[in-house]
Fold this sequence. Notes:
The complex is a heterodimer of chains A (304) and B (277). Chain A is α+β, with helices and mostly antiparallel strands. Helices cover 45% and strands 23% of the residues of chain A.
Amino acid sequence: MIRFWRNKKKGQIAPFMIAVIVILLIALMVTVNLGKISLTKTDTANAADAGALAGASTMANGLNAIGDISDGMLADFIAAQAALAMCPTCWKAWVTYGAHVASQFALYAYAWKAARDTLKEAKKASLQLAFSNVGIDETKPRQGRETYEEWLKRKSNFEQWMEGDGYESGLYSWQDTQKYGQTASAGTNSVTVSSSPPSWSVIPLPGIIWFLGTIHKHHCIVCCCFCYCGPLPTLWGIAAVTGATEPIRLRVTRVEPDINLGLWGMRYRKAGESGITSTSGGHAYGGSVLPFGSDYDSELTEVN
Amino acid sequence: MFRKGLYFLWYSVSYKPLRKLPNVIAKAIFLFFVLIFIHSSAQAQNWDTIPLPNQTILLKEDEMVMDNQKIKTIHCRSNLPAQDIRNFYLRFLPGLGWNEDCPECNQQGNDNARLTFTRGDNKISIIIIPSPLGKKGENDVIIAMSKLKEEAQQGEEYQEPEGKDLSFIPRYPQSRRISSLEYNASQKAMLTYSSMDDVDKILDFYRQNMAEYDWNLADETNFQALPPELGEMQSQIKLRGSALIFKSPRGECIISVFEHPQEGENSRIIGIKYNEK
């Protein structure tokens, strides 16, 4: 046994260990690299989902508000029809009809603008939520002799940018501190979010309202000689919003700095690559803006 | 229940401190309560039950108040043709003591009909129109019931109708109230006024004064610049004026100011519609 050990040549394990260490280092680099890519992919997917759901939820709320306007318009129609059925004087009947139609027109125009504003709000909400969830890890360096408490209180550039509604521009970029093997321009991070809401058209629900006659000695008389008798046009409510169930689509792209890991030119991304992108879509569904229609809800539909 | 109520009242007037009162005064107090009870019972409007034809569902019942007069409204939807619904009421209501009022007024179109019936001072109007909400062939039936009330005809000396203004919405100076209507369990109201002033002057008044009552201007609509889908309807109605929509924690208010829609009239109408939140 002792002879066996004595006969063995020393140092033969060294080349093998060097090879193993190199392989382990490569595996470590690959793991870190893949982990980083996976984390970024998760962040962009979360951001796209959160943005799409926020947009869809805003659209559902807007459609429900339009549905409420439609409900109110029908209630107003019934009341106006009942008032006209009570045979008011000719003059009063025209006033009642005019005031009814004027308020129906105003409410329809308001719903029309509400639809347009809802889409703007949906876009805004989707961008805001996407940026909030994309995991922007910008460093906040201490300034001058700033104490820790002051540093904690001070808002980061990203927080200030969000508060100033900068997210509406759809692009946020920041610079990482320069690292070994990296040019200044290669340290640029960026997040790009594009939100594409659908287009909506509000469709009115036309109907008729009856003039019945005027009161004369406790009876409705044939008033056509003195006043109009018959149906007149009015709005009953809102018939539909075309494109209401079309999705709002989000596209989130995260570009990380082009860091050279110092091993055979290994990088987080290859030159010319546009970063990691996730897309998602959300829509409002299940409701109707018709009077007595059910409410809309929202859900994610297209997740990539 | 009624007897128990009377016992309760009798017991309450014979409560110990009251027992010391002379018997006549105790009886007077008891009688006073009974009279109040009878009076309040008489105030409650008892509406007749109006039958609905087969294949007809009730959508909504409401009690409106127009110029201090109560009106009951029933909104239903029917699968029956307008002719069948009309025939149903012409057959059934006379049996309940209702008389068809002005048969020559009760027109019957291809797809719509209207009927009026009276019984003493009571009046029912039934309007049957194709339902734009339901399936094809369905009809909406709107029934309005009230007491008959004679109104001053045009040309007679103007008297402001009964009813009330809304305390939280300013009234345009020197305007005449034409009607006031409360509906949807008094959560909604529609008031109309007339004025001889210009549309713009009236609108300016509301733009400037509504803020004092906590109303914020949310939207403004000119009837000459409506969305294109309403173009055809507007060309028939020819409404000239504008509407202002105000919002507050209390609810929503639409002020519409427009030229009187009847030809030959030279006055401006102010329509105030209020929706409680």
